[in-house]
Design brief:
7-stranded mixed sheet; globular; binds flavin-adenine dinucleotide; binds iron/sulfur cluster
């Protein structure tokens, strides 16, 4: 087996006089999936990506998954002059957070998450990409593949508890699809990209078509057994990682080599899914995909006679030259918030409030996940035991939602799940131990693998009042108006967060794990990086932006295939659902195009 892969050349000739079958904005999970599905179906597709290109060797050199802290001159830290925003800065200051900063480059908190040198060319510089309004920790990655280059890979399905949430508890809106509609597409995503996990047969967290699961270590097995007695489940991390391999010459199967637990981290052998190797390079190999990076899109262009989309207006991100691309169908996949921004920017006589926005819902109904509460414990039996390679696995464990399924909590609706792990890590929690010298080293070694921790991700309710619009004054480095946030957690999220800490403690105590610390603080809005809902799907064009195929109610040749289409946030991580929905919508799109309906 060879680990050196050669990607198709990204320096393609881009013919902007040509009318493509489809133009896609954005190359992350959503745009990559659209490119894969449409090119397989024979459509000629142009993909426009605002960020820079990284060739395969370049991105591998950036990620350096095998590099240990002692191999790096600054133990993985940023070079001088770079700064990552802290929790306190998000809490105390107002956006734009980088305004007036003495640092040359300012990044979101992910840049301070241990190992920041690995993301300095991946995260956006907040100085170039400001936003305004209420506090919000917005994490963005502008490069080929977007955030998938460094995502955490927890790959979960939604269930009818999510798709039919209103039917279950009366709140919000049901999705215009049910689990049965999307299940075949989850299967396709699982098979094409590979996912590791263990079947549990839970109605609220449907199983995927799993490859080999990651192995739980002894502390995790102990917790799993105790939780079973409480009617709760601890399952191995369901990772968007191929452990057995997939038919894709750009990817290898996971070899458990070490960087997965280094947050932020990417996988430089691409066992973990990322959009370029998983979707875009194979799509280029069909001969049907043209990619243009450094293309910052700012307008969906409209045919003044028909009101239909006719292409995209964009600027070259480097030269700032204005350009246009023509296509029969426009697919917006710039990520939830950027897609809403693009729709709002696309004003014309036919669409005075922004394209696809006759309902007035674009930018509204924003939802995501609330996080912060969690727990750390010590498994005494593990102190002084031999060490295991727990960094070298794609994740630890997941405890699926257990609230408001058959029970009804008094303080809040919907639920939350926990991500967690135990065992030996690059930076062991025991490194905080007091003392020095030989005794200190012995303590660190003895306790290194004995800690276990987990943190919760809870559903933020979709509310019309939580929204983003365009700031009338502030512009980004390309002269494009920026987003202004009007968003805060509500009472349901706060009550749910209180319960997260209580239930975490209850579970550790039941498992006989010594509680070392309980986190109760709620992290800043946006921290989960699971933004959703700004162009939601629905059957009623008055209260939704898209139909069940992510097609604009107003403009039939306009599709928005990312998380902005989600009707509610669920508490499960969204990326696998984003890709399953995009697959389903793009099959429909190709069919409709063939029939002449677009
Ligand atoms: C550190 C981290 C951990 C995460 N962990 C998980 C996890 O465990 N599980 C999970 O499900 N999700 C996780 N996520 C979230 C996951 O990465 C996103 O859900 C996913 O990438 C969304 O795909 P997308 O295509 O909508 O957006 P992106 O991946 O952000 O891609 C959007 C692309 O559009 C481009 N773009 C934006 N604006 C424009 C424009 N105007 N013109 C042209 N191009 C544009 C961007 O440059 C980008 O390349 C994590 C994210 C991060 C950063
Ligand atoms: S543990 Fe597996 S998926 Fe993670 S970086 Fe290593 S090889 Fe890649």
């Amino acid at each position: 087996m060879t680990l050196i892969k050669v990607a198709p050349p990204l320096d393609q000739e881009v013919d902007l006089t040509k009318t493509y079958d489809a133009v896609i904005v954005g190359s992350g999970a959503a745009g990559g999936m659209a490119a894969h599905v449409l090119t397989e179906l024979g459509l000629k597709v142009l993909l426009l990506e605002a960020g820079k290109k990284f060739s395969l060797p370049e991105i591998n050199a950036e990620l350096r998954s095998m590099q240990w802290p002692y191999d790096h001159p600054r133990r993985g830290d940023f070079p001088p002059g770079n700064h990552a925003l802290s929790f306190n800065e998000y809490q105390i200051r107002k956006p734009p957070y980088a305004r007036g900063s003495a640092f040359r480059h300012v990044y979101s908190y992910v840049g301070g998450w241990g190992g920041s040198d690995y993301v300095k060319n991946i995260l956006v510089d907040e100085k170039e990409h400001p936003y305004t309004g209420t506090k919000y920790a917005w994490v963005r990655a502008r490069l080929l593949g977007g955030k998938t280059n460094i995502w955490g890979r927890l790959a979960l399905r939604l269930s009818d508890y999510d798709f039919k949430g209103k039917t279950h508890d009366g709140y919000g809106e049901d999705w215009p699809i049910s689990y049965a509609d999307i299940a075949p597409y989850y299967d396709k995503v699982d098979t094409y990209l590979g996912i590791s996990g263990h079947k549990e047969n839970l109605p609220h967290l449907p199983d995927s078509l799993f490859q080999r699961p990651v192995k739980l270590n002894l502390a995790e097995v102990q917790l799993r057994q105790k939780l079973a007695g409480m009617g709760r489940v601890l399952t191995p991390y369901r990772a968007g990682v191929t452990t057995d391999g997939v038919k894709n010459k750009y990817r290898n199967h996971c070899m458990g080599r070490g960087a997965c637990n280094r947050r932020p981290g990417g996988c430089d052998i691409h066992a973990a899914f990322d959009s370029p190797t998983g979707l875009i390079y194979p799509a280029m190999d069909t001969g049907n995909l043209t990619v243009r990076t450094n293309s910052t899109c700012h307008e969906v262009l409209v045919d003044r006679n028909t009101g239909k989309a006719r292409g995209i207006g964009f600027v070259d991100s480097v030269t700032k030259k204005s350009l246009e691309a023509k296509a029969k169908v426009v697919i917006v996949a710039a990520s939830t918030l950027e897609s809403a921004r693009l729709l709002l920017l696309s004003k014309s006589p036919q669409h005075p409030n922004g394209i696809g926005n006759s309902s007035g819902h674009v930018g509204h109904n924003f939802c995501e996940h609330v996080m912060g509460p969690g727990i750390t414990g010590l498994v005494k039996d593990q102190v002084g035991k031999s060490h295991t390679l727990d960094d070298g696995r794609p994740g630890g464990f997941y405890v699926p939602r257990f609230r408001n399924l058959t029970d009804k909590q008094p303080g809040f609706i919907r639920g939350y799940g926990f991500e967690g792990g135990s065992g030996d890590e690059i930076f062991p929690p025991s490194a905080d131990a007091p003392g020095f010298g030989a005794a200190y080293k012995k303590h660190v070694r003895d306790y290194a693998g004995a800690y276990i921790s987990m943190g919760a991700f809870g559903e933020v309710l979709s509310r019309f009042e939580n929204y983003m619009d365009l700031d009338p004054e502030v512009k980004d480095a390309w002269g494009i108006p920026v987003l202004r946030f009007h968003y805060e957690f509500g009472d349901n999220e706060k009550k749910m967060a209180e319960d997260m800490a209580v239930s975490a403690k209850e579970m550790f105590e039941e498992a006989g794990i010594e509680v070392v610390g309980v986190d109760r603080e709620v992290l800043t809005e946006g921290w989960s990086i699971h933004e959703l809902g700004t162009a939601r799907m629905g059957n009623d064009p008055k209260t939704s932006v898209l139909n069940q195929f992510q097609q604009s109610h107003d403009v039939k040749n306009l599709f928005v295939v990312d998380g902005s289409s989600h009707v509610s946030a669920s508490c499960q991580n969204p990326t696998w659902t984003i890709m399953a929905l995009a697959w389903r919508s793009c099959e429909h799109l190709a069919d409709e195009l063939k029939r002449g309906n677009l």
